[in-house]
Amino acid sequence: MTSTTTTPAPARPGEPAPLARMLRLGTIRAAYEVRLYFRQGDSVFFTFLFPVVMLAIFSVAFSDGQMAGGIRGDQDPISMAHAYLPGMVAAGLLLSGVQNLAVDIAMERGDGTLKRLAGSPLPVISYFLGKLGQVLVTSLLQLALLLTVAAVVFQVPLPTEPSRWLTFAWVYLLGIGTSAVLGIALSGLPRSGKSATAVIIPITLVLQFVSGVYVTFASLPEWLQNAASVLPLKWMAQGMRSVFLPDSFSATEQGGSWDLGTTALVLGVWLVLGVLGSRLAFRWIRKDT
Predict the structure, then answer these.
(1) 267: which of 174, 195, 221, 251 fits an S-S bond (Cβ 3.0–4.6 Å)?
(2) Which one, of 256, 254, 213, 12, lies nearest residue 93 by Cα?
(3) Is the pLDDT of residue 15 over 90?
(4) How far apart are CA 228 and CA 238, in angstroms?
(5) 109: three-class secondary structure by DSSP
(6) Which one-letter DSSP state was computed for residue 77?
(7) What element of type H or E holds 211?
(8) Three-class SS of residue 100?
(9) 76: left (phi over 0), alpha (psi -120 to 50) or beta
(10) pLDDT tens digit string along 229-245?
(11) Confidence band, pLDDT 50/70/90 cuts, at residue 67
């Protein structure tokens, strides 16, 4: 038996190169995905507006409270809205990437969309570029809305130092990239599109509670802090706290500092694991169906 190896046919004169074509189709697909996203009320609420709503709830419910910087609480007092903002930013990255993509792709697999796309001329790279483009656009819009509400409605002072915004940029990029590839990897977990939200949403909720989003990380039991320290959301939240909170708050972290080097390392490792997991787990059609 002989085997043959097929190579892509060369582009015809006047046709775009394969890479350029994939990028162009990915851009078109991303625009389509963004429009589709904002037409789905449940996606808009549970991934786009959820961090804004939670920030408002916590800020109003604890409007009379103050959270002070430092271990003894004798310096840098800040409002509860200010204290919760970094966690809400990190939660937004998780929801935009993990929850949004895991549920969305699982539902597309369940309703036959992926099967139809598999037989279409759309390259798989363009499909994923469309998903990643949607996550990037919607997460940036969400961040703009969240920061605007925090600054205008709740009078949260935003950073003025360029170094803090530089930290924000790389934590955001690593965080949203990691969340996106983990969402693709987890999309194979639900057995059907109908069960996608029931499977994925509890996972993201648990991650938020154990990673210092809704509960101060230092107040968690030590064993839970140690367990959560291997999770990417804990480091996304810690990185965002280094951006938005006074430096005195670093003393309340598990290691007594912002530890941005470890933040970059852990998120980088999870990014690689997510890419590998996406490659192994993603299927156009479930094998057990």
Answers:
(1) 174
(2) 213
(3) no
(4) 12
(5) helix
(6) E
(7) none
(8) helix
(9) left
(10) 999 999 999 999 999 99
(11) low
